[in-house]
Design brief:
Distance between the termini: 45 Å
Helix content: 40-55%
Strand content: 15-25%
Number of domains: 1
Shape: globular
CATH architecture: 3-Layer(aba) Sandwich
Largest sheet: 7 strands, mixed
CATH class: Alpha Beta
CATH superfamily: Vaccinia Virus protein VP39
Strand order of the largest sheet: 3-2-1-4-5-7-6
Number of strands: 7
Radius of gyration: 18 Å
Order of helices and strands: HHHEHEHEEHEHHHEHHE
CATH topology: Rossmann fold
Structural class: alpha/beta
Length: 262
């Protein structure tokens, strides 16, 4: 019991640090995250398509977005017509998200998604997000997400790949970490370790696939040249392992009702 309390306290302190770090981003959050450039926008649009496909997100889907930030992906996913509950810790980032235009119903919640309960319990067909799990204590977070998902619900995220050279340097070299503005608790994932964690926490049909080589700093004129090369790189095993991101898909077990006596 003492260990659990200690872990929950540490997790709350971590969330507070992330909330404070969000204030550093306010001068240009989408620029800092790399979504503001032409290549960044192309990258975001493709990532949204991958999340939609992996999650089977459609017009009748009830979805929960974790860490919506300024609403970049909320806006893109809303084009499916799905209902979105978008959670964000930072009041300031959420204020920016409110200013975007959405094609479907979006309910914004300011707070920690792991604390949702009541009407949210067992509600969601899809829990999804972009570049957020690497800020979170997954040992505490994942069991709560299972509680919020319907049986057979999908869990879909795109996260940084620790095997990518740039990401490894940003996460492991102090001076680079400071220059790039990486938050104190921010990490990245090795795909096999993340897959093992998801399985151990009770998810099924787990896949963690490397993808994404289109760097946000690629000039607009070179994007059409790089996109076919990206497609090839993602299908070559030795190359794809160092892709920038991991596409994560898992499911909550589809619990079968017990059969009655015949």
């Amino acid at each position: 019991m003492y260990g659990k309390v200690t872990n929950e306290t540490a997790s709350k302190e971590r969330l507070l640090r992330e909330k404070e770090h969000a204030k550093v981003l306010l001068r240009d959050p989408e620029g800092i995250w790399g979504w503001g450039t032409p290549a960044g926008r192309a990258r975001a649009e493709r990532r949204a398509r991958l999340i939609i496909e992996a999650g089977g997100i459609a017009r009748d889907s009830m979805t929960l977005e974790i860490g919506c930030g300024t609403g970049v992906f909320t806006e893109l996913i809303s084009k499916t017509g799905a209902s979105i509950t978008a959670c964000e810790l930072s009041e300031e980032l959420l204020e920016l998200a409110h200013k975007k235009t959405y094609a479907s119903k979006v309910d914004f919640i300011n707070g920690d998604a792991a604390q949702l309960g009541g009407e949210h319990e067992g509600r969601y067909d899809v829990v999804w997000g972009s570049s957020v799990l690497h800020h979170i204590d997954l040992k505490l977070f994942l069991p709560r997400m299972l509680g919020l998902m319907k049986p057979g619900g999908r869990f879909v995220f795109a996260e940084p790949n620790m095997l990518n050279p740039q990401i490894w340097l940003e996460r492991n070299v102090g001076i680079i970490r400071r220059v790039t503005g990486t938050s104190p608790d921010e990490t990245a994932f090795y795909r096999w370790r993340l897959k093992e964690l998801l399985v151990n926490e009770g998810f099924v049909n787990v896949s963690v696939r490397p993808h994404e080589f289109l760097h946000p700093m690629i000039p607009r004129l070179l994007i059409p040249i790089f996109q076919p090369l990206v497609a090839v790189a993602e299908h070559v095993w030795a190359i794809r392992e160092i892709a920038g991101s991991l596409l994560i898909r898992a499911e909550k077990p589809n619990i079968q009702e017990p059969r009655g006596v015949q």
